[in-house]
Amino acid sequence: MTDPLAPLLDLPDVADAVAAAKDAVFQVHRHRVNLRGWATTAAEASVRAARASAALDGGPTEIPADGAVSEPVLTGSLRVAEALGGLVATWQRAPLQVLAKLHVLAAADLTAEVGRPSEQRGVSERLTMLGSLVTGGTSAPAPVLVAVVHGELLTLRPFDSANGVIARAAARLTSISTGLDPKGLGVPEVSCLRRKDEYEAAAEAFASGTPEGVGQWIRFVCSTLEAGAREATSIADAALSG
């Protein structure tokens, strides 16, 4: 069968962007702190990712000094971040089940209807297609699959709430499960927040379905993976100096 994502590598500058992203993330894993003490970097990366993701959906970025978070968007994003490590294996074989679980975690304080995607025409079919890609339906490089998962979920908005948090969490799961960022050290979510207008424009371009728009989105996602690697390096450097 033809790989549905294979043509995306032929889009202008996508192959170079993919190579740069892969190299940047690989280098973070070779940082001397992350050779043994990667768990500390990963824990900090997870919290930073959750805070940035919540902010992109309208939540606050700051966690109260006493650690008691009550704001529902941030609370949900932190719950999702805490659960991701235990969902990697299931994501590889039953991604739609994981998406439902992510919605339960992210939206528990936002809506009474959790875990059920929209019945709007076409949503189920596109989720099924996305699931087939995650479970081995493509041999495209990991950054391309990460971008497609992220962009497709932003476009579909399959749930009635928390779709942004879910899309970014699914992209993070894909980075981990494909071996691109197996320890979850990168923090691309921070770059998405810092470049929010560009992020939203690129997501809209992806939703257009045009080759130009899809290429724009993939290049943007690759640039956030590079930026996320720099963020991870700063975390590791701080641990080294501390």
Number of strands: 0
**Overall 3D geometry?**
globular
Number of domains: 1
SSE pattern: HHHHHHHHHHHH
Q: What does the model show?
A:
With 242 residues, the protein is mostly helical. The chain has a single domain (6-61, 70-241), classed as Fido-like domain (Fic-like fold, Orthogonal Bundle). It has twelve helices and no strands. The chain has helices spanning 14-29, 32-36, 38-56, 72-83, 88-93, 95-107, 123-137, 142-156, 163-177, 188-194, 196-208, 211-241. Helix 11 runs antiparallel to helix 12. The protein is globular, with a radius of gyration of 17 Å. The model has no long low-confidence stretch (mean pLDDT 94).
Short overview:
By secondary structure, this protein is mainly alpha-helical. Helix content is 69%, strand content 0%.
Descriptive terms for the model:
Fic-like fold; 12 helices; single chain; mainly alpha; 242 residues; globular
Task: Summarize the topology.
Elements: H1 14-29, H2 32-36, H3 38-56, H4 72-83, H5 88-93, H6 95-107, H7 123-137, H8 142-156, H9 163-177, H10 188-194, H11 196-208, H12 211-241
Helix pairs in contact: 1-12, 3-4, 3-9, 3-10, 3-12, 4-6, 6-9, 7-8, 8-9, 8-11, 8-12, 10-12, 11-12
